[in-house]
Amino acid sequence: MEERKEKMIVIFPYMAQGHIIPFLSLALQIEKKGYQITFVNTPLNIKNLKQSLPLNSSIRLLEIPFNSSDHRLPPETENTDSIPFSLTLTLLEASVSLKPAFRNLISDLVRGGAPPLAVIADIFFGWTAEVAHEFGIFHTIFSSTGGFGMACYYSVWMNLPHNYTDSVEFTLPDFPEAGLIHRTQLSANVLAADGTDPSSKIIQLLLSSWVDSDGILFNTIEEIDKIGLYYFRRKLSLPVWPIGPILLSVDSRARSNKVCGISSESCINWLDSKPQNSVLYISFGSQHTISASQMMQLAKALDSIDINFIWVVRPPLGFDMNLEFDAVEWLPEGFLKRIEEQNRGLIIVKWAPQVEILLHKAVAAFLSHCGWNSVLESISAGVPLIGWPMGAEQFYNVKYLEEEVGVCMEVARGTNFEVRNEDIVKKIGIVMGENGKGKEIREKACEVKKMIENGGRDEEGYKGSSVRAMEEFLNVAAFFGKEKKVRGQKCRMNT
Ligand SMILES: O=c1ccn([C@@H]2O[C@H](COP(=O)(O)OP(=O)(O)O[C@H]3O[C@H](CO)[C@@H](O)[C@H](O)[C@H]3O)[C@@H](O)[C@H]2O)c(=O)[nH]1
């Protein structure tokens, strides 16, 4: 019993599906190694999580009080997937108010005789380091984004380099290895940022607290993401552990009460009826959507190219995600009827069983905004990407995957631009084509899939890089615990 108490880890993600999903997966993975997990979040997220836990899991879910109405948010909204995109900054600002309640929670655990061995917190919850250190607890950040994308995102927000040049392209002052960044690779809130606006104030505050942590875990693989990981090792002088891919199993996803627009079974049956490598999967993650005119252009492109596809359709930009939604209103006249008659397209409303789809042999490519979870799910399945980045670090994920890794081709950028259906048709044609660039990208995707499998291999006499990184992190946390908890003391070990 005593042993188990010693090995308790507190896990605390930001309130967004793109963050909660990999944190839950991380929690399940660490639990399997014999650690007790306390998973912290706001009441509605905890309620939703209850069903995602496997029956044999002993993960403890702990609520931290939060009332969205106190923070200029609609009532009962505690996750980016239930608010309009325009309120994402408001939710981020509101999340800082969780600090006193988090401190009480840790204090209760310590006073109750079960001090955590470590706290693993979100990239937006660097402030938890101060709380952890107050109680002599080891602290790490877990980045659910990859190294390169996060390094560009971090550098762009901390330096706001576009304010110091009139040029459309520039390098990052502390990350020149990233190469040229184009203004169109900055999201709208970065473009408007000058250091005094609400976005840069909150994001710079949150990112600058990373340095208070004792190390950073990344949901990535050392072999494919060296440049970005090195940026953080150099910048923060902290251990950086690439432990990915941390992916939630199909089983745990199925248990969550996220309502899919289709049953997994119907979706798989549909895919079973299609030839190998013939289907394009289209989805833009848990919080993004395209504009009404972009939706029309994408539909026109699909209408004019002879491929099979699955498209997760959501209300276009500016429309409430939670309202009833009839896809027909936003698509060209007769589109749904035509694709049904041709039996070559599946429109799924709002949410699809993504991992099952990507694992199916009929899927040839993924047209994605390239949120990092989608990227990992895709490349782990050997599926190449057609990138349409929309915000955050997605622009840099696409840049890296296209220029350095070679498994992606960018088709469009952002949600405020006109896209032309002819351009979409051309890029889909290239990536799904049997020869030339398409063949090259698919071969590279298979190579990367093997590298990822290798990183996670744990066999007699061989441990992959991600397995070693996870072991090292747990050993350092245990060492910190044994060193005894001096108030405010920090552990700086080099990897
Ligand atoms: O119909 C759907 C749509 C999404 N998903 C899942 O939802 C997650 C979406 O995550 P991601 O692809 O990373 O997209 P976002 O939700 O947009 O992710 C946010 O979080 C990511 C990780 O921090 C960042 O990389 C992104 O920029 C940020 O927008 C993935 O696991 C998907 O499998 C489904 O299962 N079905």
From TrEMBL:
<dbReference type="Pfam" id="PF00201">
    <property type="entry name" value="UDPGT"/>
</dbReference>
<dbReference type="InterPro" id="IPR002213">
    <property type="entry name" value="UDP_glucos_trans"/>
</dbReference>
<comment type="pathway">
    <text>Secondary metabolite biosynthesis; terpenoid biosynthesis.</text>
</comment>
<comment type="similarity">
    <text>Belongs to the UDP-glycosyltransferase family.</text>
</comment>
<keyword id="KW-0328">Glycosyltransferase</keyword>
<protein>
    <recommendedName>
        <fullName>Glycosyltransferase</fullName>
        <ecNumber>2.4.1.-</ecNumber>
    </recommendedName>
</protein>
<dbReference type="GO" id="GO:0016114">
    <property type="term" value="P:terpenoid biosynthetic process"/>
</dbReference>
<dbReference type="GO" id="GO:0035251">
    <property type="term" value="F:UDP-glucosyltransferase activity"/>
</dbReference>
<keyword id="KW-0414">Isoprene biosynthesis</keyword>
<dbReference type="InterPro" id="IPR035595">
    <property type="entry name" value="UDP_glycos_trans_CS"/>
</dbReference>
<keyword id="KW-0808">Transferase</keyword>
